[in-house]
Protein 1
Amino acid sequence: MNKLHKEKLNELWNQTQTGDWDGYESLPVYDRTFSLAEQVIEILEATWPSLDFGAEPDGSITIEWYSKKLGEWSLSLRHDDFISYAGILGKHKLRGACKTLESIPYISDMLYACAFKGAN
């Protein structure tokens, strides 16, 4: 994982280890969720070098990408390995879910095709 992504993820880790980290009774982000995020980021960053991260009140981690010109997408990762995604890339609207890390390269390729190749 590149240095910037590692620093961002570590900062998120430090901020979300206890419940109520957002002041609104949020759940803590579990170790398993961070482990999954590290694996997913390592897969994605070769194609998507400028990723942003965040946490959700249910304890999920979000990985996001945005381009003013091309669109945006977001992945949500839960501690039980459930991964959901949504994106608006050009004229394409994508969304779905899976429960396997092996699906991430496929999802990344599909998002890339819509963003950069105008796939239907």
Note: The helical segments are 3-16, 31-44, 104-117.
Protein 2
Amino acid sequence: MPTNLYVLVDPRAPTEYRYVGITNQLKKRLNNHIWSSKMGKKTYKCNWIRSLFNVGITPKIIVKAIIEDSMRSDMEIKYILKLKTLGYRLTNTTDGGDGGQLGGVPWNKGKNMPLHIRNKISKSLMGKLNPMYGRSQLGKLNPMYGKKHTIESIEKNRKSHIGLQAGYNNPRFDYNIYTFKNINGTTFVGYQYDFKKIYNLISSKITRLIHKQIKSYKGWVLQ
């Protein structure tokens, strides 16, 4: 299945590419980049995106090529190398080839990652290159070693996380528009999240319906 080789740019400087990626769901991928940055993730890419937030703008996603799945890893690696050679200030933290697909069936299901790509990923995380290098918190190095959280602190932490990744805030929120029709003549057009919520349907069943693993559920069919 064809997929997109894309770049992220500052809308004010659309020819200055800052990040290279692969996806077949552009809107979801861009939303994921934005969400990760808003949640405080510490990477060069997220730091750059937050710098755009500070002046009231968001990154723009631009498709550079449409390629076959079988070529995605090699094309991403080659394009990142090409841009770096030309002097582009990319925020990618790896040489590429380790990108993923948001939602649906993973692009690499049933495939083995090429040895040269596994070696690249391994080398990029060795020793001091590993973000956790020298930061072990095992045993007595852990600040909570020999201590227990109080019931109050556990409850406070639980409440502070309620809803952070629920519904539209979920980084993997499905922004595709679906049309479902029921045998009683009712038709729904919109997000699967709203569909499940309005009609009180089981999430896993709707997922199977969308992926054509079942033909119908409670009288509903995917159009």
Note: The chain has seven helices and six strands.
Protein 3
Amino acid sequence: MEKLIKKYNVVNDELKIETRYLFSKKFLVLISGIVISVILSLLFLIGSTIGYYDNEVDKCFKSVEQCESIIVKLSDSLDNLDNDLSISMINHQSGKCLINPIQEKPTKESVYNLAVECGAWYPDIIVAQCLIESNVGTSNIYKKTNNMFGMKIVSKNKMTTQSGNHNSYGTYKNWKLSVIDRVLMDRRYFSKKPSRKEYEEKLLGSYSETGDYLAKVNLIVNNLNFD
């Protein structure tokens, strides 16, 4: 009888140990499941947050792009307005020059002021070219044509103040119309105001037959004194 009791006790103890082990194992599995669920929930939350901010960032970029597009359109509108105003001033000055006889001789100051009134982008360069191309008002071309800039004949489909031609050079009724046409030439070459460097490079391509042309222009410009 005692042997049976001892054997029962041993078996009972083993069952308790087995039960505790299984309970511990189930508990660990349960805790692991909870931890995994929490981690997955956090990952989902983080992913949702990142997705939200990604969308917000995309919206910001789109807003910036829209602003840039508006700025470009405004800039183009201002350029067009500048051209329209300049053409209006040129037309006004051309009308005055055609109606009123021109008696005064050109000076650096009068050429500069007329170029400014016509909306010239770089009137100091125009004055320098005037002095070079007309040889300070002594060249034969200038004397015969009032052409102060050695301007060639402009095609009929382009706006110009030329009234005729002489040996492939345009002729003008007076020197002021020559200055006005020089300003118009800039509008024929550029759709909007160029940088001074771009402007000078274009001069080299359209006027210069020698490599020192731009140096001559800048030398005169540097010695001009206009307020």
Note: The chain is about 70% helix and 5% strand.
Protein 4
Amino acid sequence: MNETVVRDIARAEALSVPIVLILCLIFFGSFVSALMPAFVGAVAVLGAFALVRALTMVTELSVFSINVITLLGTGLAIDYALFVVSRSREQLARRRAPTVRTLTRPLPPPRQPPAAPCCSPA
């Protein structure tokens, strides 16, 4: 029973990884951007594997913990990358309008910052 489940999960991961990479390529728009979540996920998964290896010296863990680690590490890396990309696109959209205004009118003169109460001359 355990061997069948482990084999099925390994096959499901082997099928899902190329699909996820293709979807990342579509969503992020470039090959390098699509590989960044995979790289971050791989680093997170390797770190979690090291932690699990250390834990197995002390206690027993389920064989499914490896699959959970790979799914969570990859999923969270992709989710965070989508978050960063959406925030970056929002910031780029916001900065276009102020840049145009800055180029069409002069900047106001700089104001002198107020002195701290402990340092101002009395």
Note: DSSP finds three helices and no strands in the chain.
